[in-house]
# Entry
Amino acid sequence: MNNNHYRHHCNWKFDELRPNIMGIDTEVPLLTGERVPYVFLDNGASTPTFRHAFEVMGEFMPFYSGVHRGTGFKSILATQVFDEAHDIAGRFVGADLEDNAVIFLKNTTEAVNKLANRCDWREGDVVITTLMEHHSDDLPWRKHAKVIHVGVDDTGYLDMKALREAFECNKGHVRFLAATGASNITGIINPIHEMAEIAHTHDAYMFVDAAQLAPHRTIDVLSETHPGHIDFIAYSAHKMYAPFGIGVLIGPKEYFSHGEPDMVGGGVVEIVETDYVAYSSPPASEEAGSPNVPGAVGLATAIHMLQSVGMDTIAAHEHEMLQYAIEQMKRVPGMRLYGPVETAALSNKVGVISFDIDGVPHAKTAAILSAEGGIGVRNGCFCAHPYVKRLLQYDEESAKTITEEILAGDRTNLPGMVRASFGCYNTLEDVDRLVTSLQRIAHGDIQGDYELHRQTGTYWPRGFDYAFSSYFPHFSFRPTTEITEFNEAS
Ligand SMILES: Cc1ncc(COP(=O)(O)O)c(C=O)c1O
# Structure
């Protein structure tokens, strides 16, 4: 198998990545009326697009056609491209393609749901997961089994002793150990191979949610004969510079060869009679309906670009940014940083920094960074409520009070932090822009009058309108001032 489709540009250099980011020079409005280049520090949610991935998709589109079983030139070409994209996505994490199925789905969330839906659950089954998980690697399991959340220490590290104890206490019942490769809150990288060894000792499968790890580090699931191999892994293209609606689940073909696929319809069968169905082999059996072929092209191209630059080069750059950002942020008065901040610990952390400033609500900090700094971050609990509450040291009583407030429609005291997350194309100058704005916020040097909207928990600068339609005229936007009114009323 080779990467012939990408032969025309196969030697990407690290310095070529930033200019290849779509929208890297986009200017956005500030409260002052100025326009400044946007600093995008929300890569942990979704990354912007590699232009090359978009262009290769564009080159593919004249050949776009339904895959599998079409007999025309375009269908045969598209089928080969789609099949090869599966192989590229599998090889990206070192999967043995003989024994493993590479299944294309929408995203990591869909992947975990499928994995959980496809298990032959038995009465009393247990899934061990961690308190660090994104809800996508927690809630799907809860539908099928008893889920045990192994705790973390005050910095956010997984308690490995508690993990071992959880296995001991549930001997014979644990089907999966499901853990994130890297946290989307603290950036902590879990010792996934050591964890896999523990799982295998107890005859459980190891699943790694690699949504946050895959864009930042080399992953090797290792061969099945290695005690620390990863049985199942999932990741999302939209966090890897290819936001075209595709994600990947990889795992033993054998696992997907029993029982019925969780979603059925066209594309998953060999033969259908009115009273009989024979399903295809995986991955086809697990990819019901017409697939996202252009998305697969985009993902494969982005993977190729990352691999061509080298994941180690990317990791080294992100490490430098992380170290610099943490050093600078520590100097901001009232700054609280969550997760590991010691230099020695940073090599085991991806480029995610969660923080808040004493006395300034996290939502307000995020709003000011946007309206006065032209900086995109994210705030709140980042779909990992239990972990954030643990890091914020909420006790049971206060967590309960806040839950009641939220359920009553008041998000004034919404727990949370602000998160700055880096991509491979961010620079030390981006960090400087962030830190300059944070210094201003910490010193109360703020221009806007920020109003809290209780129902949403968001802050908006009074009277400011982002005037979206002057940037993107194809849709009819409501003025941002009206959005806030709507939020209050709805
Ligand atoms: C650690 C982690 N797991 C899973 C997900 C879910 O990914 P997706 O939204 O692509 O399904 C995310 C997304 O933020 C994440 O950070």
Q: What stands out?
A: Confidence is low (pLDDT under 50) at residues 1-6, 486-490.
